[in-house]
Amino acid sequence: MRLEQCSIRGRIALFTGVAVGALCIVFSTLLLFAFDRTATQNLTKEVTAVGELTAYYVDRGELVNPLPPIPTNLIRPVQVVDPHGQVVAATKDLQHKPAMAHFVPKSPQRVASAVVCHSVFTSGGCHIVVAQRVYRDGDWTIYSAAPALPFYVYPGVTTILITGTIIFTIAVAYGARHTVTRSLRPVDAIRAQLDHIRSNNLGNRVPVPVAEDEIFRLARSVNQTLDRLEDVLEQQRRFCSDASHELRTPITAIRAQVEDALLAPEDVDLTKLCNAVLPSVERLQSIASDLLMLTRLDAGVPYERQVIDLTELVAKELKNHQLGRKVVQCLTPDVMVLGDRSRLGQLVRNLVQNAQRYASSTVTVTLRRGDGATLADPRFLRGVAELEVLDDGIGIAADQRETVFQRFTRLDTARSRDTGGIGLGLPIARQIAESHGGTLTIQDSERGARFVVRLPLHI
């Protein structure tokens, strides 16, 4: 099985086991090196002591061959080399053999040591050789040796280290897997709950652990996401229901008029029939256009940003719009913003149409530059362009000012339908303002409804 196919538990247990095993091996190796170094130093001291004992006899002129007995605990191969390089005395195991080594201590040192392999030793292998210099009618050299110690000086210690490494690695890997398994139980519960959540039971939520750790934050984020998803789906259901209702009304009217015409075709006035059907067709076209605009805004379709003279844009829209009420314009010149001309034009049209629909006699459109610092909003630090559309109608109650921005919402259904409103103009206007980094709100006014658009000023 490939590593990518292993569970998180298996991967963590594997990585932990490998890491701990590697650390144990490194530690054991360093410990064996320390043991080997210490034991080698002690052995070198013993070999040096043997050479010093022989040097004592040479210095006193009591040299015999073979060398005199050496204490049992100090028995080592020893050779005595005279100033001419000839072996003149040796222990019994090295009789009639050449010198075991050829290095001598460098002045002013009297003792030197080295590891010599494949020399005159009967046991073969490598030996630690200590050379000591003695002066007696010339420089004499005493060589003493002992077999070099293997890396595993103490086999018992090596066995313990190997066994301990294996046991400790397995224990740590098992402990890591067990700990991760316990830690991931809440994740399994979250996954199981998510698997059972469907569109018909979005009210269910995943369990949140008691401990405020990463999994706690994950569960909380999942529940917050489910809250948003439930709100979006509920909004989508409501939107589909409202859209179906709005589309059904003009379709029903067209169907009724066409069926009446089919019942008595000889009595049908084609011009009169077309004039009767045309308002319903225009209503369908308006609904389809608004739905398409909302879809693009919801999808975040990018648009071309350019510097726009908002004063010129508002004046042009008011000039091209069929005004049924008196319009008073108070436009500050050279109010520049950054955005899409067609969308900002749609924003102005929607607000003016809404004001025309509910105004008693007059609509006031005001455009001015403002100081963004007074708004305490980081979006308007460089200044704000404020577009105000005020009508002198009945106004909007304070508790309904956010309701009108919901899709297909009409505070006066009969009046809105008679005047052509479908409840999408204001939601579209707000989304356009927000997509340009601004806001659209309803502010207090002495009479009527006062809509205020704020956009970042382009300096």
TrEMBL record:
<keyword id="KW-0808">Transferase</keyword>
<keyword id="KW-0597">Phosphoprotein</keyword>
<dbReference type="GO" id="GO:0005886">
    <property type="term" value="C:plasma membrane"/>
</dbReference>
<keyword id="KW-0902">Two-component regulatory system</keyword>
<dbReference type="Pfam" id="PF02518">
    <property type="entry name" value="HATPase_c"/>
</dbReference>
<feature type="transmembrane region" description="Helical">
    <location>
        <begin position="152"/>
        <end position="176"/>
    </location>
</feature>
<feature type="domain" description="Histidine kinase">
    <location>
        <begin position="242"/>
        <end position="459"/>
    </location>
</feature>
<keyword id="KW-0472">Membrane</keyword>
<keyword id="KW-0418">Kinase</keyword>
<dbReference type="Pfam" id="PF00672">
    <property type="entry name" value="HAMP"/>
</dbReference>
<dbReference type="InterPro" id="IPR003661">
    <property type="entry name" value="HisK_dim/P_dom"/>
</dbReference>
<dbReference type="InterPro" id="IPR003594">
    <property type="entry name" value="HATPase_dom"/>
</dbReference>
<dbReference type="GO" id="GO:0000155">
    <property type="term" value="F:phosphorelay sensor kinase activity"/>
</dbReference>
<dbReference type="Pfam" id="PF00512">
    <property type="entry name" value="HisKA"/>
</dbReference>
<dbReference type="InterPro" id="IPR003660">
    <property type="entry name" value="HAMP_dom"/>
</dbReference>
<dbReference type="InterPro" id="IPR036890">
    <property type="entry name" value="HATPase_C_sf"/>
</dbReference>
<dbReference type="InterPro" id="IPR050428">
    <property type="entry name" value="TCS_sensor_his_kinase"/>
</dbReference>
<protein>
    <recommendedName>
        <fullName>histidine kinase</fullName>
        <ecNumber>2.7.13.3</ecNumber>
    </recommendedName>
</protein>
<keyword id="KW-1133">Transmembrane helix</keyword>
<dbReference type="InterPro" id="IPR005467">
    <property type="entry name" value="His_kinase_dom"/>
</dbReference>
<feature type="transmembrane region" description="Helical">
    <location>
        <begin position="12"/>
        <end position="35"/>
    </location>
</feature>
<keyword id="KW-0812">Transmembrane</keyword>
<dbReference type="InterPro" id="IPR004358">
    <property type="entry name" value="Sig_transdc_His_kin-like_C"/>
</dbReference>
<feature type="domain" description="HAMP">
    <location>
        <begin position="181"/>
        <end position="234"/>
    </location>
</feature>
<dbReference type="InterPro" id="IPR036097">
    <property type="entry name" value="HisK_dim/P_sf"/>
</dbReference>
